[in-house]
Design goal:
Largest sheet: 14 strands, antiparallel
Structural class: mainly beta
Number of strands: 21
Strand content: 35-45%
Number of helices: 3
Order of helices and strands: EHEEEEEHEEEEEEEEEEEEEEHE
Strand order of the largest sheet: 1-7-8-9-10-11-14-15-2-3-4-5-6-16
Length: about 325
């Protein structure tokens, strides 16, 4: 949504205002602020192995017990944290790939809003969605002392909030992909307002649609569904991580590293995929590319990054991770 007129925050007051905008949006729609039972239907299409119809259920009971289930094409899983933390995961799936469609469907409903660590670059802008004014925030985690200019940068994640309601309307974790939230018949649950649905777009194409099937108070913590009988202790830690836009700077294949000098040019490839708990990279998608000849080099580098994550400590959960990688290839200027 942001294309121009972006302003870098300059002082504490401006940073507080920008982060406050995101925190308010989180609070307004944070179903997880209290015990809940959320059911979501999810349709993914676009050619990936996990595409098809999914049903997700996310339950947080009083007493801090947590249960998450997913069923879809050739996959069914029940995950349970019986003590209400990530310290002990039990599952009927001891290992294996957590499909990207399932992970995306669940994580998008978390309404992920970036943290405000001191080294995050934060810029602001305004926009419009269906005639409604929007306030947008662009974030780069770990920017250090770097600053950005012009329209949205390749490394920036974009959050847009309705200026009247304060609700998050659009989230783009990386260029080429964005999630749009629909509150047209939103659900009021305790002190929150939950979107009825959301849609995911990649490269300008609709690739997934989700809808809230039901939202209610959860069963009692003594309900048999929270019993670990017949389930396998998988490890300590959550089974999946949310995606983050990570920049990777490297030279183009066959060229020495040019660096940011007057004789170098930059080509960019934005990539999305899923790293399984065993280090396999799957369901890779090129979200955007300024030079398709470099797409394969980006995929190969992403595969190496995934394999480097394989070693785990004994008893730790093997985590799947949705990844967004922005490769900046330095090439010799032509």
């Amino acid at each position: 949504m942001v294309t121009s007129d972006v302003q870098q925050v300059q002082d504490a007051q401006q940073r507080i205002a920008a982060i406050g905008l995101l925190e308010k949006a989180r609070g307004l729609s944070n179903v997880r602020a209290q015990p809940y039972d959320l059911k979501t239907s999810f349709i993914a299409y676009g050619g990936l192995a996990s595409d098809g119809n999914w049903m997700l259920e996310d339950i947080a009971a009083r007493g801090r017990k947590y249960r998450w289930t997913a069923s879809g094409p050739n996959y069914s899983a029940v995950n349970l944290y019986p003590d209400g933390s990530t310290n002990g995961l039990y599952s009927n799936q001891a290992s294996g790939l957590l499909p990207l469609a399932s992970a995306s469907g669940s994580l998008r409903y978390l309404l992920h809003l970036s943290d405000s660590r001191p080294q995050a670059s934060i810029r602001t802008a305004t926009g419009s969605l269906n005639g409604a004014p929007q306030n947008c925030v662009l974030v780069v985690i770990g920017a250090g002392s770097r600053t950005f200019s012009g329209g949205r940068n390749w490394e920036e994640s974009e959050y847009c909030v309705d200026s009247k309601t304060g609700l998050l309307t659009q989230y783009s974790p990386a260029p080429g992909v964005f999630v749009r939230y629909d509150y047209s018949s939103g659900i009021r649950f305790h002190n929150t307002f939950i979107p009825t649905a959301f849609s995911i777009f990649e490269n300008g194409k609709l690739v997934a649609e989700a809808r809230t099937v039901g939202l209610a108070d959860p069963p009692a913590a003594t309900d048999p569904m929270f019993d670990t009988a017949g389930m396998t202790p998988v490890g300590s830690g959550r089974p999946m991580n949310p995606g983050m836009n990570l920049p990777i700077v490297m030279s183009a294949p066959g060229q020495p590293f040019a660096g940011a000098n007057t004789n170098s040019a930059i080509q960019v490839v934005s990539l999305h995929g899923d790293i399984a708990g065993d280090g396999r990279l799957s369901e890779v998608e090129i979200l955007a590319s300024t030079d398709p000849a470099l797409n394969q080099a980006a995929v190969e580098r992403a595969t190496a990054i995934a394999q480097a994550r394989v070693p785990v400590q004994p008893g730790a959960t093997r985590q799947s991770s949705e990844i967004f990688l922005t490769f900046e290839f330095f090439t010799q200027a032509r």
